[in-house]
């Protein structure tokens, strides 16, 4: 576990690595949102429900 943590720290210290990680995350955001809609019982593209915390 220690080796994994040290490699992760070294990778994220590199700005180009962080930039690429952000780009990949942005590419997958629509798919993540669609999966969340399905998990919460909504159809993809349905309007967002009212915020429950208001």
Kindly list the characteristics that best describe this protein.
2 helices, 67% helix
| Average pLDDT figure | 89
Number of helices: 2
Q: Can you count the beta strands?
A: 0
Oligomer: single chain
Helix content: 55-70%
Helix and strand element order? HH
Secondary-structure content class: mainly alpha
Give a description of the structure.
By secondary structure, the chain is mainly alpha-helical. The chain has a domain of about 35 residues. It is built from two helices and no strands. The radius of gyration is 17 Å and the shape is elongated. The protein starts with a helix and ends in a 15-residue tail after the last helix.
Write the layout of secondary structure elements.
Elements: H1 2-12, H2 15-39
Quick overview:
With 54 residues, the chain is mainly α. The chain contains 2 helices and no strands.
């Amino acid at each position: 576990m220690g080796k994994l943590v040290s490699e992760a720290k070294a990778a994220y210290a590199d700005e180009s690595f962080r930039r690429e990680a952000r780009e990949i995350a942005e590419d997958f955001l629509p798919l993540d949102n669609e999966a969340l809609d399905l998990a919460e019982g909504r159809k993809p593209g349905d309007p967002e429900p009212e915020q429950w915390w208001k």
